[in-house]
Amino acid sequence: MGVLSWAVWGLVVGVFARLLKPGRQRIGLWLTILLGIAGSILGGLLATKVLDIADSDEFDLGSFFIAVATSIVILAVWERVDRMLPDRRRQDQLGR
Question: pTM value?
Fold first, then answer.
């Protein structure tokens, strides 16, 4: 049940992050789930260990907002890195 709850939570956080970040993101369902899980983990660590503003064993709305905000930052970094990488599909079409 734990894996399923992480996947559902990751999907919810990832979808909210994608809705709040302007523009079209070229990621699918699985990467949206991973985005939400990564944002939740990093946001949780940031809130509990660094900022000391959240409780590590209870849900609160602030934790959700921190998870979504962290997911938006991860998504922005992902898009930036993706733009810097060469487009392999375009190179294959050109015969390179």
Answer: 0.77
